[in-house]
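Could you join me in thinking about how sequence relates to backbone shape in a protein? To get us started, please write out a protein record for me. Would you write everything just below, so we can both look at the same thing?
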Amino acid sequence: MKRKVALPVNAPLLDLDHGKPMTRREFVARGMMRGAGVVSSLGVLSLFANPRSAYAALSSDLDSLKAGCGINVSGAGKIPFICFDLAGGANIAGSNVLVGQQGGQEDFLSTAGYSKLGLPGNMVPGTGAGAAFIDRQFGLAFHTDSGFLRGMLTTATSATTKSFTNGFVIPARSENDTGNNPHNPLYGIFRAGADGELLTLIGSQTSVSGGNSMAPAMLIDPSKRPTKVDRPSDVNGLVNTGKLVGLLDESDAVAVMESIARISQKKLTAITASDVVKDLLECGYIEAADIAERYADPSALSVEDDTDIVAANGAIFTPDQFNGDSELRKAASVMKLVVNGYAGAGCITMGGFDYHTGERGTGERRDFRAGQCIGACLEYAQRKGKPLMIYVYSDGSLSSNGRIDNSADGRGKGEWTGDNSSTAASFALVYNPGKQPVLLGGTPEQQAQHQQIGWMRSEATVETAGTPAANNVNLLVESVLLNYMSLHSQQGQFADANFFPNHSLGNATSMNRLTAFEPLYNGTVNFPV
């Protein structure tokens, strides 16, 4: 039998047993739709004449009015949130993030179970010699030869990025090759309080959810539909300060709009306009002045000009890496906006993860690149001194029949041979400046059960009775939202009318079992615990 060879990382997946792709979701899952394929040019900000590098500060009398107008500077004070939607049914459990039985990640599965997850007998994690296949550099246990991990280590290069990161994994079924998995949590993250200075939510797809998978219907707010961002030009073109900045210098432009705001305020106090009309007019001018102050210089939002992201030396990506891969540029664009608080939360969809191609190398290459993007987001948060929560999920999963691919890209691991929803899992990583997130529980055994929320049976199938999330994707999203709010010391408010009063996660004791970490902040990131 002729062995199949690994496909290039951008090659579409054509030789599968699913028939021809018919929907956008199917095209994304098979790698036929990605981010921008060309190096982007400067956006509308490049038309401005003689941008100044020094910012003209907004006058103190108007600066004090920004909070009352709801103008968010550096977001709404919540932990930035980025989710990765790996379209097609990626392997997460076992060969990437370790998943064990009821005792946690290191309550190991059977050898047959690991074989089903693509790990041969000589790569099975365990005690003794098996300890060599357990890597906890990011807190959460990965397999040492995980494609995700290897990619993360190429971009998350700072020792502090690794030492101040921790994570949790949730074994949970989701259906294969369907657009009906409501995996996307962005609307819920907004309801939990996340917001941005310029945009509330962003996503790399034009869908209602901003990603490949749909959002839970009960969370969707049409007024907060994610703005599409999948390339640097999308970021550069977000703010248009108008021709005023080109006709005048930046200081004069700000002064003109400040004067308009003051005149508007004085006139409005002399008339009987409603408070709503007054706020709309007065705050509109204040916001225009604030935007002119901070964004007249195109480099303020430019992804390409951010030397933490791309530079010949010392950046996360070299120019050749950045310019040569649209997926890296997509991730950089989203992380630029979210980590800096310009957007409250973002979704990065990566296609081509339906990789049960009868060999191993295709999946390894795609997992590695996903890891590069995940690591880049963590590293960028560390460089900017900001916390970050990353959530990674996929629609379904896959399994191996145990046949080994000994090619260079196959790495001596099991070939992926078919879809398998029972081997699915999702995971999250949390970076916190200066302090690694601490797992709940007073003993290592208790902490292990908070790091792995739910479990797999020894033969590598999700125990569907393990948690409410294990067999219900809506409740998987609710579990992620619970953990996000818990990081802000708001777990007790989860069921409040303004948040998630109709949740199905049970009582306080049940919700505590579904929570990974001790709180990091009291309400907002301005108040560390």
